[in-house]
Design brief:
- This is Calmodulin-binding protein.
- One of its GO terms (cellular component) is nucleus.
- InterPro entries: Calmodulin_bind_N, CBP60.
- GO terms for molecular function: calmodulin binding; DNA-binding transcription factor activity; sequence-specific DNA binding.
- The chain is largely without helices or strands.
- The protein has one domain.
- It is built from 1 helix and no strands.
- The N and C termini lie close together (about 10 Å).
- The model has no long low-confidence stretch (mean pLDDT about 80).
Amino acid sequence: MPPHLFTGGKVEGEQGAVIHVVLLDPNTGNVVQVGPESVAKLNVVVLEGDFNDEVDDDWTKEHFESHE
């Protein structure tokens, strides 16, 4: 994989499915809809690998950086 990947295109899920990203309040489990966090910007990072079988979805910083 090249060090930088710029597609300039739309990011989609399998078979063109729309990808939704939401921020959940850890205390209530509800989607954050008001306040500064509700308009946060998201950076998408491409990682090399097959992550369909990941059991642990909570990565440490070190684990994440080892897959960049």
